[in-house]
Amino acid sequence: MDAALRAGVAVYNAGEHHAAHDAWEEKWLDLPDGSEDERLLHGLIQYTAAVYHARRLNWSGATGLARSAREYLADLPATYRGVDVAGARAALAALERDPERVERGPPAPLRYEGRTLALGDLADDFDAAAVAARVLAEEYEDRYDAGVLADAVRYAREELDEGGARTRFTTFVVDFAVDPDARALVYDRLRSHVRRRRSRDRDVEGLFEES
After folding, report:
1. 143 and 93 fall within a common domain
2. Quick one: which of 22, 46, 43, 48 has its CA closest to 136?
3. Which of 12, 38, 84, 120 could form a disulfide with 111 if both were Cys (CB 3.0 to 4.6 A apart)?
4. pTM listed for this prediction
5. How many domains, in total, are found in the chain?
6. Measured between alpha carbons, how far is 8 from 59 in angstroms, rounded to an integer?
């Protein structure tokens, strides 16, 4: 859950308010209703949705989601699982009072372990970077094939599970997540490596089928 939290917070702080909720949704759906973890993720999902609607001038949608998100976060500690819940509640209350504030300045950031977590902060956390890479690929499906990222993450994990150092798949997945300026170039190189690996795997499978 920590990797998903870090990824979602960093993606949100990068301005990808719609993509951020995808980092949390899968974990949220598996949690017992009403548990603290479930309320945290439910509240964060609605937080990002409130900001998303406000940025698109849907004031009623933004205020309703801000109110609902604040209710989910209401009884959690001021800091929970590293997330600055008190700061999130304050930002939601301000958004509910005045959703048009997003036209006058950027939305309030989410803070994790006392910091405004950025995508670059995921560079040394492969699990979080992998989550961020997946949701960003899904968000921009017209540019990137999420299946390529999924396979790259799988290959990287196989390498890491074997006790090896970071290799090209690990590096490319992380770079795709943390470097928006180079993302398109990184994706092209990553796709090429994934295609070669897929072809090699098919050749190996064919040899065993023939024997």
Report:
1. no
2. 22
3. 84
4. 0.90
5. 2
6. 24
